[in-house]
Amino acid sequence: MTPRAGTMRLACMFSSILLFGAAGLLLFISLQDPTELAPRQLPGIKFSIRPQQPYNDLPPGSSQDGDLKAPTERVPGHLSSQAPRGSRLLVPDRPQAQLNVGSRLRPRQRRRRLLIKKMPAAAAIPANGSAGALARPAPWAPDSHWVTLHHSQQERKRVMREACAKYRASSSRRAVTPRHVSRIFVEDRHRVLYCEVPKAGCSNWKRVLMVLAGLASSTADIQHNTVHYGSALKRLDTFDRQGILHRLSTYTKMLFVREPFERLVSAFRDKFEHPNSYYHPVFGKAILARYRANASREALRTGSGVRFPEFVQYLLDVHRPVGMDIHWDHVSRLCSPCLIDYDFVGKFESMEDDANFFLSLIRAPRNLTFPQFKDRHSQEARTTAQIAHQYFTQLSALQRQRTYDFYYMDYLMFNYSKPFADLY
């Protein structure tokens, strides 16, 4: 064989190999699922800045006041339409559409979607959360003070969501029912939802909502019975399902909390150390009959004179002679913060700053501030940490520990310190 013929044979073999390789590559590409080759968007929420257009107000109570298909895409109208010129709102982008939605999912895609479903609540905005971030407060608010309060809000919500993700992982997948929103009051003009936590400033907050709604000109004009026994303010559970979901996804949701031991002592002092035509006969009589040995006939007849250790015995008894009451129930049960994504978490201990900051966020009238008066037992000192400590020293170490365990989720979610050094 000549050298020239050998060279041509090698060239032909090399060309054949190239042709077979190209044909194999084309065959491999043609057999692939297009969705496997498309660029993937990582799980999570991407935020961008874009102006928002206000949307038309709907009549309160209307059954057509919510688009259930995409409830998280709208920004509360009172924040977007009233935001000062130049202000910007953070709004989640719409997720990119998936290719070939109707096609059969491959195992890898199923695993990826399962992981997304199992992501902690802190990593994404729940379906019942408001789509827009809170707007910047009014121009008259000191900027550095606003930054401090804003960071405080971010930290409180982070702690709450992390606690929920760790201990209430299944809550984010549950559907909201009327029972979950039965303590939430609605103010439609400023698009506010307020979850009532008794003994954490709720009377004055309802006064503020009534002024915001135009039902009174001043908080000082509203009597205690009007606040608690009138029907001026609507509860969220009085709306139909569309109305509930619409408001949860577009209104600003807020709650105020209080150190649990202080809140418990405040409730006890209010309901059992003063004449009361409901709590004495309903709770007092049952508590005395069960937990006081040799109770007098007068005490059993009136239900008056319940002592704090007897009250705590009732609280911790799994077979209580009378049911739970909102004044000492857990905040986690009253407001369902692991199911409802609250936009604002205030604290009784910093009420003035938090309340007036919130009022500036929702563009409340400038002359409206949170009232400081105490309309019941006004001559009596408010329950402080020192007063609460005095009451809890009446208990044994075991009773204090069990009471702390009873309110453990409230201590954890709202980042309160242990009130006694011997608690664990």
Record the SSE blueprint.
Layout: H1 3-30, H2 34-37, E1 47-49, H3 77-80, E2 90-92, H4 107-117, H5 143-167, E3 184-187, E4 192-195, H6 202-212, H7 224-229, E5 234-235, H8 241-250, E6 252-257, H9 260-272, H10 279-291, H11 297-302, H12 308-316, H13 331-334, E7 344-347, H14 351-361, H15 385-392, H16 397-406, H17 408-413
Parallel strand pairs: 4-6, 6-7
Antiparallel strand pairs: 1-2, 3-4, 3-5
Keywords: Carbohydrate metabolism, Glycoprotein, Golgi apparatus, Membrane, Signal-anchor, Transferase, Transmembrane, Transmembrane helix
Main location: Golgi
GO molecular function, one term: sulfotransferase activity
Derived from helix and strand composition plus strand pairing, the structural class reads alpha/beta
Strand order of the largest sheet: 5-3-4-6-7
Strand content: 5-15%
Q: Report the mean per-residue pLDDT as an integer.
A: 77
Biased composition (Polar residues): 50-65
GO molecular function: sulfotransferase activity
Subcellular location: Golgi apparatus membrane
EC number: 2.8.2.-
Task: Provide a descriptive summary of the structure in words.
With 424 residues, the protein is an alpha/beta fold. It contains 17 helices and 7 strands. It has a domain at 147-262 and 329-378. Helix content is 42%, strand content 6%.
